[in-house]
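Hi P.,

Sorry for the delay on this. The queue was packed all week, but I finally got your sequence through. Input first:
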Amino acid sequence: MMGGLSAERDISLQSGGAVLAALERLGIDTHALDVQQDVMQQVIAGQYDRVFIALHGRGGEDGLMQGALDTLGLPYTGSPVIGSALAMDKVRTKKIWQSSGIPTPGFAELHAGSNWRSVCEQLGLPLMVKPVHEGSSFGASRVNRYEDLEAAWRQAVEYDDRVMAEQWITGGEYTVPLLDKEILPMIKLETPREFYDYRAKYEDDTTQYICPCGLTDDAEKKIGEMASKAFMSLGCTGWGRVDVLLDEDKRPWLIEVNTIPGLTSHSLVPMAAKQAGTDFDELVLRILNTSFDDTGR
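Then the structure:
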């Protein structure tokens, strides 16, 4: 399944195309579905054995598709309904992490009646503003002055009716890819832009991906274990990616979980898998295998 109707449709088509090609190279009987409103009728008519979900964003990564496939008894890759839904909701993710003692930056939900100055005093400046349910940094922006906070909220609310402000962490950006309980090598992300936004992720050739990430083995191991714990605390399984910031004192702050990360030429999980000795086709096969239960069904 790829494409879909979310803001991340184009990225999903790229991921899905790469997965389709890999599965075909592996000799697996594979059929591509560009997800539209009639997708479940297509699934029923196709009599498929299982589904590789390469949908990013709402409608594919938020538990909606997972629940629909569960009602059909059709196995699928990645996290179940609960993990998908919680990870897609950045506010609920952070509340669960806070209750579990997992470090995550402070935050506040924004709305039309917010006291913009009070939010800035609470979280400090600069701060991040982003949609609660969106991925790929759509609608996200950095705010340096409280006078600009309302405009940033208005930009973000075009993508989602729920918007949050988050404490800014100055330091390095990292990600921890996870694959079937294995913690893959961390990647450090460096961009000349203000933060790792949509352009830095998908369009900008100046973005650098550093793997090995440069941390000591001990530090990487501890952060990886923390990320894995954070992933499982949301009920996530199979595969995914946990984004982390390290502040100037090298303290980790967990930002969010991606339950269906990109599988494009710019994507991070394939880079980490390659560093661990797993090529793209083998990675896709291992992700497909997350659709099987412990009995192999």
